[in-house]
Amino acid sequence: MKLLGEFLKGIWRENPTFRMVLGLCPTLAVSTTIANGIGMGLAATFVLVGSSIFVSLVRNIVPEKVRIPCYIVIIATFVTIADLFMKAYSPALSRSLGMFVPLIVVNCIVLGRAEAFSSKEPPMRSIIDALGMGIGFTLALIVISAIRESLGNGTALGFSFSRVFEPPLFMILAPGALLTIGLLIGLINYFTAKKGLRRGKKD
Amino acid sequence: MDLASYITIIISAVFINNFILSRFLGLCSFIGVSKNTGPAVSMGVAVTFVTTMASLISWLIYNFILLPFHLEYLRTISFILVIASFVQFTEIVIQKKAPGLYKTFGIYLPLITVNCAVFGVAVLNTDVFFLNGKAVDGSFLKALLQGFGAGAGYTLAMFIMSGIRERIEFAEIPKCLKDIPITFVIASLMSLAFLGFSGFKV
Amino acid sequence: MNQMLRFGLILGLICAAATLVLAVTYEVTKPKIEDQLKKEESAALAKVVMPGADTFTEKTLDGVEYLEAFKNKRLVGYCIRATGTGYSGYIRMLVGIDLSSTIKGVSILEHSETPGLGAKINEVRPKEEEPYFLRQFKGKQAYSIELKKDVDAITGATISSKAVSDAIRDTVNKFLAKMKDEKGL
């Protein structure tokens, strides 16, 4: 039961993108199509889970002072593994994500979870936490990229509805990404505040 | 002709492909540290120093170690390690030799290690200034200029954003949009304005 | 100092382990990656760049990389590797020309242009087979091709369109000049 909570918190209550506002560079840069969003989300989840296992395993061996460099090395290793496998088995995806695959290494979510969670908890719980965070990140990417692709390019998952309206290019370009995430966070704030108010009245 | 191509790199990194507003590199600190102009510009200067130095070091490593020994796959791990140790080293040096400077810039240094702009420019340099495993003409200088331009573009965006945020501090914004969401919306408008540069032929 | 040594040792150990893991992964994935690249390239060659040709042999001439294309053992043309500088990086492509340097086909192997803008150089319209921008090049003279005269630029992506047409013209010219030298000698 507790493990389930550990898993679920990453998806909503502590969602890395919408609630903690971490790891934004890849979120905004690759969310131009849903396929890219899913690919980036899964790659980041792989790195999160892999590094959390090892960070958790070495947590009692690594001295306090050099822990950050050690974590970075572990994370970079998993990032490179993900990069190489993506090149080997999905070259098209690897090409469209481009330099944002190696950039997972500086994604604050990964180092943040290593530092805040895996470095203190046993491997099992670390994996669950990383999995939750990874899936939360992937879901956030899917939401943002679905909005941007359908509005900006007039397509979604292979369907094209560019005949219904002329898609505004704005949404595919940088400003559209920033606007989408800004308004989404605002929307989530609004609903949480409303829910909190209602709950406050009940108590 | 060559001088023009060098100037183009700087103009492109600062305006056309501004690191924050069009490449999304360094967004976290852009949102986090842009509340007041003073710290925002200090952060910008510190980032500029680190991006320039990171471009220099990473270029040397890539050209003289990774490429000759066919170790391109160690790019990610070696760049991030070198950047992290360089930042750490600078922090120690500044702290010991110039405590005044440390007070203004030093506190931002640990944040810079995981700043996407720094690692991003190092990776971008190897993507853009190397072709078929060989350095292109003037590759080293171009990488340096791109590193500097990236930092300068970052500082410019930080400066504008912090100025705007100082002014809207007391504005009546819907509660749910306060702080982070409104910053994104402003960034979106800034980015839209910077898109105007993209038609520039340089 | 002793403590420093211990720290260094631990960090060094972790780095060594990481490098080992990466070296193994690299060796495992390397053949697969090369295989994928070759597969994509040969698909592009036979389908788009030089339709009808059956065998290709890799050649280099003074820095220009190209492939000789044969049909029933007769030389029918050349597929030249060209690289253009686009809006946000290199655009790598293959250009197929026949013996009178008429373009048979162009295929973009790699690019990093902006989606929705520059990326349209390689965009395929629904129900069509090949990118509409690249299709325009077919049948044109490679050495004199010019944007806006022989081929239409993509709206809003002039830089990317120009990068493609300029790279094709310049590389083909370089190639033809080198060939002339070679034969003249």
Question: Can you summarize this structure?
Answer:
The complex is a heterotrimer of chains A (203), B (202) and C (185). By secondary structure, chain B is mainly α.
Helical/strand content category of chain A:
mainly alpha
Whole-number tally of structural domains of chain A: 1
Largest interface, with counts of residues having CB < 8 Å to the other chain, equals:
A-B, 43 and 44 residues
Give the distance, in angstroms, between the N- and C-terminal Cα atoms of chain B: 11 Å
String of helices and strands of chain A: HHHHHHHEEH
pLDDT < 50 runs, ≥5 residues of chain A: none
DSSP helix count of chain B? 9
User: Structural class from helices and strands of chain B?
Assistant: mainly alpha
Task: Tell me what portion of residues of chain B adopts beta-strand conformation.
Answer: under 5%
* Mean pLDDT across every amino acid position of chain B: 87
Q: Can you walk through the features of this model?
A:
The complex is a heterotrimer of chains A (203), B (202) and C (185). With 203 residues, chain A is mainly alpha-helical. A two-stranded antiparallel ribbon of chain A has the order 1-2. The radius of gyration of chain A is 18 Å and the shape is globular. The mean pLDDT of chain A is 87. Chain B has a two-stranded antiparallel sheet. Chain B starts with a helix and ends in a 7-residue tail after the last helix. Chain C has 185 residues and is α+β, with helices and mostly antiparallel strands. Chain C has one domain. The longest helix of chain C has 48 residues. The mean pLDDT of chain C is 86. At the A-B interface, helix 2, helix 4 and helix 8 of A face helix 2, helix 4, helix 7 and helix 9 of B.
Describe the protein's topology.
The complex is a heterotrimer of chains A (203), B (202) and C (185).
Chain A: H1 2-11, H2 24-29, H3 34-57, H4 67-89, H5 91-97, H6 108-118, H7 123-152, E1 155-156, E2 159-160, H8 174-202
Antiparallel strand pairs in A: 1-2
Helix pairs in contact in A: 1-7, 3-4, 3-6, 3-7, 4-5, 4-6, 6-7, 7-8
Chain B: H1 2-16, H2 27-32, H3 37-66, H4 75-97, H5 99-104, H6 109-113, H7 116-128, E1 130-131, E2 134-135, H8 139-168, H9 180-195
Antiparallel strand pairs in B: 1-2
Chain C: H1 2-49, E1 55-61, E2 64-71, E3 74-85, E4 90-98, E5 103-110, H2 132-135, H3 158-184
